[in-house]
Amino acid sequence: MNNNLRYLFNPDSIAIIGCSPNAKKIGGRPLDYLIKYGYKGRIYPINPNYQEIRDLTCYETIKNVPGEVDLAIIALPQKLVLSTFQTCIEKKVKSVVIFSSGFSEVGDLGKQEQDQLTKLAKENNIRILGPNCLGLFNVRKGMYATFSTILEEDAPIQGGKIGFVSQSGAFGSHVFTLARQHHIGFSHFVATGNESDIDVADCIQYLAEDEETDVIACYIEGAKDGKKLIEAFQLAKQKKKPIVILKVGKTDVGMKAAMSHTGSMVGSDEVYDTIFRQYGVYRAHTIEEFIDVAQAFSELPAVNGNRVAIFTVSGGVGIMLADQVMENGLALPETPEDVQKRLKEMLPIASVKNPLDTTAQINFMPTLLEDFMEEVLESGQFDSAIAFLGFAGLKTDSLNTRIKSLLKIKAKFPQIPLVTVTLNNPASKKLFYEKGLVVNEDPTRAVKMISALYKLGKNMEPVQPEIQRENKDVNLYDIISSSSAELTEYASKQIVAQYDIPVTKEILAKSEKEAVEFAEEIGYPVALKGMSPQILHKTEKGLVLLNVKDPQGVKEGFNHLKKIIDETEQADFEGVLVQEMLTEKSMEMFVGSKKDPIFGQMILVGLGGIYIEAFKDVAMRKAPVTTEMAKEMIEELKSSKLLKEFRGNAAYDVNALCELVSKFSYMIDTWEEEIEEADLNPTIVFRNGLGVKVADALMKLDKKSEVILM
Amino acid sequence: MNNNLRYLFNPDSIAIIGCSPNAKKIGGRPLDYLIKYGYKGRIYPINPNYQEIRDLTCYETIKNVPGEVDLAIIALPQKLVLSTFQTCIEKKVKSVVIFSSGFSEVGDLGKQEQDQLTKLAKENNIRILGPNCLGLFNVRKGMYATFSTILEEDAPIQGGKIGFVSQSGAFGSHVFTLARQHHIGFSHFVATGNESDIDVADCIQYLAEDEETDVIACYIEGAKDGKKLIEAFQLAKQKKKPIVILKVGKTDVGMKAAMSHTGSMVGSDEVYDTIFRQYGVYRAHTIEEFIDVAQAFSELPAVNGNRVAIFTVSGGVGIMLADQVMENGLALPETPEDVQKRLKEMLPIASVKNPLDTTAQINFMPTLLEDFMEEVLESGQFDSAIAFLGFAGLKTDSLNTRIKSLLKIKAKFPQIPLVTVTLNNPASKKLFYEKGLVVNEDPTRAVKMISALYKLGKNMEPVQPEIQRENKDVNLYDIISSSSAELTEYASKQIVAQYDIPVTKEILAKSEKEAVEFAEEIGYPVALKGMSPQILHKTEKGLVLLNVKDPQGVKEGFNHLKKIIDETEQADFEGVLVQEMLTEKSMEMFVGSKKDPIFGQMILVGLGGIYIEAFKDVAMRKAPVTTEMAKEMIEELKSSKLLKEFRGNAAYDVNALCELVSKFSYMIDTWEEEIEEADLNPTIVFRNGLGVKVADALMKLDKKSEVILM
């Protein structure tokens, strides 16, 4: 990074190029907001047609501005942008926001002009937000470099702790407005537009370091630089700032829409999902979940465990909440017996086990709610609480009584996150906000909030130190004899074997005589496989012979396989692989890697054989993967049951499998540029203590590597 | 049913026993509502302490009432209920609502008294709603037999078409209030309480026949009579009234809460889920989904297909909607090219493929929305539409412009369901309602509404005529030789074979000599299995010998197996089963039945072997199952891929499998009382055209059957 984003997010001086005295115009709105919401820095309107705008001196060009300019807003027609930007460079402006559209989003010509902006920015140490962007604002500083209409009528909520980054201005404006209706405040709002320079990852990094921001909320359609995004996630985690992301473009159709909407490249959604989980980012799937979870992170204390106490005025909603608590990975322990007894004394008709149903009696006993909550939470057996109050929020009397109770409980148990659920109107919503109580109208959404806090708590735990495997002195290209980027089973296994990954006992025979010698050495029966870099699907071509039992069989087999290859056009004969037969009781697994265009090498593990395709039971991580992480991957598989003691079957050697996955992942990481795809399939897992063996393998190198090989 | 529910839901005369002049009291509230909301029938307050209440003559007891009483409300302390009910019987009252609590929900004593009420009601042709219930109301008739507070301040929405049945009064009140906030109206509201007589199924049946009800919404915790509930579902379907259900008690913890909340027995949730799907009931999982879908069914036209057009002012929300449309089983076809061209002419910067993004330009071109929508919908390529308008709903100007456009489109395309999505305040919500437009604040929820309409459309298709299989003249008890309720493989297969279900070739040998004879007849190799009704897990006991190749082996095998059984305490020796070995290429499946305590015989199909437990890949239906339904079951399985042509493998004989499942289901249905559980596992499916064979089977009879066998 050539300069930091302080000048953008927190400038001491702002020039508005294309400034207008009309607050309804794009060039007038920022000035209006800056004045209205009390920006304390210097403001320089720039417009050759005015001497003065709203009592501020107006300058003909930015060059005439007397002082330094931290941030220049460019609100001009597209054709003037490039030359104006050059003037900004001359003026040594630190950063610019370009509102103007007509760049990469409209096609090649626009893209070229945008690329020029990018190049100039890099060369001249000036940062660009946009073009084609709605701008940004910093609420605490009253800094509004945006033409969004969302601030025309209502001010933003003050004191918010959520930093909000959006790749879409319209989406961001919508979410901002919705959040404001619910009195949820943001510290910053930034729409990144075409991301010619500053992207979402840059903004996350800035907000991770920002003292006024506790939580980072992001809307993204796709990242161009996966590595940078991961670094931003890691920084946020280190700074203990949770991130909640809404990423769209999940399905193929959604992705197509994403590509026509922005110029960004959209990676496969499962990879994003993996990256988010691996780096502790909470992924929301709907707008409701997005703002609910951001609010939970910013307004509730961290939760210490998964035990939820449910207080309800409706048995029915209590049962529904109980279902949803369990479905979201939380727990609903029974109230301790002594507490139950005391609650029953208070109200014999109450349900006291958890959910705790105070019934409609709550309307006649004003302290019932606080008495129940106090008894239950004091037991120390619960980490969070949900209070369902029906439509009490709509009735002034009951609302005031309940709020009194809730405040008492909040004061007494400040460490316990509490979400109140009740129907609301604008007045009662405001009252809850002013009292510092978190309220939602829907019970299901309250459970999601608590569940997100709990998942987050686990994500924020310090990362385990990565086991650094020793650097192997292996040169990929020394091993490969052919010039094809697609490697045979033999070549692929030669490579993995260099990394101490156990493979089947096997030797490549170049002649009939060698084949027999090797078979004797390995021991009968053997498998024979014809190797040709041009024929990778051996079985379909009839290049696999199993259970060959004697020298005569080996001789005939060798010649048969060689003949098939020789008769195949443009196929080179590499040799015949003489291989041991595996007969021990075992489980077939699949271990592989795939180079994602955004995030790089991803490691995959799953059940092998035909079942993987039917059940899509695959776990994924970004490489490298420690053995601990590999264990987590195996645990994620539904089929992991089959690897354990099961129906009287002994367990399989999961430890050896994890060790293999980890070694493989470090190998892939070492050659992250060179290896395009690798499959160890099947990887045979024997009974506990008996290890693993790669029975077949395939590897495909990057096209660039092919050039090296030639 | 001894009398219909007309007197309850639509009475011409109502007596209120325990009536009070105080509208805040339980006995006063119904009278207050009846007067306030204009009930046209006769009202008889009953209370010995008053001559008159609110200008109506008050009677000492119901016996003094001069005319007939269709409905009596009992609002008295528990101890007076039974005697009062007896007086109602004497007065020949048609139906009663009992508000009073203190019955089955408080324990055995209360249960006994409730049982007396039930008995008296049946004997005297009088219907009871409750006890322990909030009552009911009929909006059109101004008939309020409830003490719920939800009508104290605000009237219900008039003209609603949703009939709402709830097993929980508090839940019902909450949903009613929430719906009213969104201007969603109900035709009826009924809370069934302890269901001593009238239950949810009765209410569904009444509402299915009711002319003012188009949609039935139910909250349930559990049904006691599954058969009756299914009949109610079938009646509603026949009357083309969609049902949306929110059923709680899904998880074990939820179910425990359900049991402590009501006296109802809660069946396993997967069975409920199956029944809902099988009988065309839409299951909602959250309160939001519940009211959204009920609203969609009641206010939108039926949808003719799955093709959705998305209109949006935010590209980002457009992508999100595209994702969700696909995830919900809907389609998002591209706009026809000629239409795209015309749209581009209107607005070059628009996205015109679908999602259709009008961009913020919509603010400057007042007819842009209607012009876009008209062009697109006129193509005839779309069945429904979603219009996302951001926060337009909060700004009076833009709101009015948009509503004008939407009304024009609604008038022009009345057959196309249209959901508008925008942020709202109470005033704008009201405006949408008054204009007859369906609006929601959340895009995801709008997709769910359209998706529910589409699923419903398919569910409402006429049911295929059931293939009635011929009645077999089979007597279960003739076949069974032992006196145990648990049948051996041999006995179980003897039974299924009577129903033309193919089983392995096999004969039960009682002696060594017979065993050899049979083996010769079947052909070597054979399998030998020791049969004892007391030993059902044969493999674990070593009672299975495979691949027995000659007479000597058969002799030795017979004696070996007999010895194991003879040496097992309390095990009867039934014989040794001599069985063919199956060697052809095949797939192992699992076919079974399970008697659910609520809904009776459920048929299950899944992948056999160890995988079923790991992947829980099972399809379920209530018996009987036609071959068409069996085909649907197979299609539901993830593993159905493995039965089809797959990786060059030929397909397996799915038709024969479906035929087997159907025959099995009819057999189970015939013996629905007698058979507790049956497993055909594995059922071997051969290659296409080669059929199926049951390789092993187990059956367990109902305990009652055991008595017959003895």
C-alpha-based Rg of chain A, rounded: 32 Å
CATH superfamily of the largest domain in chain A: Succinyl-CoA synthetase domains
Number of domain units of chain A:
5
**Which structural class matches the secondary elements of chain A?**
alpha/beta
Label the CATH architecture of the largest domain in chain A: 3-Layer(aba) Sandwich
The most extensive interface, with participating residues per chain, is: A-B, 81 and 81 residues
* CA(first)-CA(last) distance of chain A: 38 Å
Helix content of chain A: 25-40%
Could you name the CATH class of the largest domain in chain A? Alpha Beta
**Strand-residue proportion of chain A:** 15-25%
Oligomer kind = homodimer
CATH fold-type name of the largest domain in chain A: Rossmann fold
Strand arrangement in the largest pleated sheet of chain A: 9-8-11-10-12-13-14
Cα shape of chain A:
flat
Question: Main sheet of chain A, how many strands, which sense, barrel?
Answer: 7 strands, mixed
Keywords (chains A, B): ATP-binding, Ligase, Nucleotide-binding
InterPro entries (chains A, B): Acyl-CoA_Synth/Transferase, ATP-grasp, ATP_grasp_subdomain_1, CoA-bd, Ligase_CoA_dom, NAD(P)-bd_dom_sf, Succ_CoA_lig_flav_dom, Succinyl-CoA_synth-like
Family (chains A, B): In the N-terminal section; belongs to the acetate CoA ligase alpha subunit family.
Protein name (chains A, B): Acyl-CoA synthetase (NDP forming)
